Amino acid sequence: MADEQVAEKKSKTEYTTVKMEDGRDVQFAGKRKVNKATVIDESKVMLEGDTITMTAGAVSVRMDYRNGVTRTYSPPLSLYAQFLGHGEEQKYGDELASPADKPLSEDDMVIATDDLHAEISQGKWGKGRAAGGGGVSGASVVVQAIMEATGKDQATVKAYLQKKLDADKDLTRRALYDSFRVKGTKTGTIIERIEAAKVAKAAKVDADAELQNVLYQPTFLVGGLESPLEAFMDQGDFS
Question: Which secondary-structure segment (H or E) carries 72?
């Protein structure tokens, strides 16, 4: 129990409160030296139908430094479109981040960015990775398995999955997809077959043939010891 308590204490993030030069108290996690935040002045943003009007200072980035210094930067209106594009590029790119042990395939990436775009198109910012958002390794295989099991097209399957997520705010995309991977289920069996076929296709050698080569490798007795043919040939000049 003592070891568990120590581990829990070590994993807890410590925060340091710093009084900023503008009077705000800001918390810095661990050894973080700077906090970044987007600041939007709604009074300088006007949306009418398909037209948006912004005045200078509508969008800014605030940088709070651990030494108490704070800076707020707002781009000139002439660069707003470029900043918008850069932010959008970053947003969609962030959706493709994945751990090294669970990389996304190209098909997984397409599904991840399509799903994010569907949320954004509804005026939703999308879940951050900490809240269960982001791409899911193997998502494309799950979608493929559901399509095969139901006979439905991809658009119908993806719409169904999104509907499930929208109905349960605590359900993450990873948890939903993993439910279809359960061994013994119809989709689970299909997924096993699809993934096994991918592994076989990527194989560089015929494993069964190589086993035969290992079992029946010619050997000779050299100096009273069993040695491969190569070792035998190295024992002297046989010319």
Answer: strand 70-73
